[in-house]
Structure formats: C-alpha cells, structure tokens
Design brief:
alpha+beta; seven-stranded antiparallel beta sheet; 245 residues; Chitinase A, domain 3; 7 strands; 2 domains; 40% helix
C-alpha cells in the first residue's frame, strides 16, 4: 500500500508542477468546454490534457482513501490559473497540510502492516517444529545436513524458493533450474545471513523472515517485494564454494 501512496504523490507532484508552469494571472476564467482544435499545438495541448487527466484518474483508483473528485477538480482549476484569491485553503498552508496528511497516512499503513505481520508470524510459529531466534527469525529444519557450516566470510551455493504469505512465488532458483552463489554476508538479506550461519551443507530449511530482517520499510520494488512484508523461503544449502582467508 505504501508504494501506491508514493506513486500517487509522484503523479500529483507532476500534475501540480505542470499546472504551475502554465499559471495565468488571478481572475482568469476556466476554459470553455468543446474547444476547437485549429492547430497542431491545439491538438497537442488537448492530447496532453487527456493523457494527464486519464492517468491521474487511474491513479486515484489505487489511492487508499475515497477522494472527493469535485473538490480535487475545483482546487486543480484554481491552482492551474493561479486564482489564489479564491483558494479555500491558505496557499501557504497547502504544502504543510499535504505533507502532514500523507505522513500520517504512511504511519497508518505502517501500523496496519505491522499488525498483519505479527499475526502472520504468530500463526507460523504455532506450526510443529518451528523455532524462533532472538532476532525474530523463524525456521524449521526439513533435512539436517552433515557438512560444514558456513562462516560470514564464506560464499555458498544454494537452491531456494521465495514466497509470500499467501503462497505466491516471487523468485525461485529451483524453477530456473540453476542454483545460485553469493557471499553469506553482504550478498543477501539479514534473515538469510543469520540462517546460513546455522545451517550445515546438505540442510534444507523453511524460513519465515520478518520484514525488519528482509527488505524493511523500503521493500524491493524491482523484485516485486512491497514494503513491510514477511517473506517465506525454502532453502537448500548445497555447498560452500569459497572461503576467504
């Protein structure tokens, strides 16, 4: 949900910037409907309006609250024409007001996510065989290996499948048919580093990683990971391929 808020803010900023760049003196009236397109520039202007308006309306559908569209349009038109004498909110108070509102909204969404994550982790830890470390990492040993245990200076080779709470897979070396290699420290999220330093080669574990030990409040947009998300992994430690001296 936080990413939706961020996208909305970015789009809103672009629209306000665009409007500000074309502001006319106060007192100007809004354009009449059914404008005739006489030149290429008229057509470009109209197409730009349709594109911006349509994109903005689409973004509104993902906004976490029900927006008053009439109030938005009223404010947009007055802002577009610089009609500050008729603003219903003092011009100097608009930016602080929006910043405060969206900050509170982000905090609200963060609290909701934390509550959901608490419930997810509580439910998972009730499963038979699940253990919880001091950091909050949850793991279940499926197969106990007999090989060496990696150190924080080692590079390992693993097979893994990453899933969300609802079972959707977001990444899997198993599905790609090729294990991956990476350093135990610095190459993976903290929850992985902690688990790998407890696993022996040949082990298969199930992990439930709290958001703070995964991608935290930022998430990982490129990997499709939303902010404040509990992640689940099936990990098989295949080998220690390199140990730095």
């Amino acid at each position: 949900m936080q990413m939706k808020i961020v996208r909305f803010l970015v789009k809103a900023t672009l629209v306000v910037t665009l409007a500000g760049s074309f502001m006319l003196p106060a007192g100007c009236q809004k354009p009449m409907p059914n404008v005739k397109l006489k030149t290429d520039l008229d057509s470009v202007s109209y197409a730009l309006g349709v594109s911006v308006g349509g994109g903005y309306a689409k973004d509104l559908t993902s906004f976490p609250k029900e927006i008053n569209k009439e109030a938005l349009i009223d404010g947009f038109i007055k802002g577009f024409y610089g009609d500050s004498t008729n603003f219903k909110i003092n011009a100097d108070e608009i930016t602080p007001f929006l910043q405060n509102y969206f900050e509170n909204l982000r905090e609200e969404e963060k609290m909701k996510a934390e509550l959901e994550n608490t419930n997810i982790l509580y439910k998972n830890r009730q499963r038979e065989g699940v253990k919880v470390t001091e950091s909050g990492l949850q793991y279940k040993i499926i197969t106990e290996g007999k090989g060496a245990i990696p150190t924080e200076k080692d590079t390992v080779k693993v097979h893994y499948t990453g899933k969300f709470d609802d079972g959707r897979v977001f990444d899997s070396s198993v599905q790609r048919g090729e294990p991956v290699k990476f350093p135990v420290t610095g190459g993976v999220i903290p929850g992985w580093t902690e688990a790998l330093k407890m696993m022996s080669v040949g082990s298969k574990w199930e992990l439930a990683i709290p958001a703070k030990l995964a991608y935290g409040e930022m998430g990982f947009p490129r990997g499709g990971i939303p902010p404040n998300t509990v992640l689940f992994f099936d990990i098989e430690l295949l080998d220690i391929v390199k140990a730095k001296k």
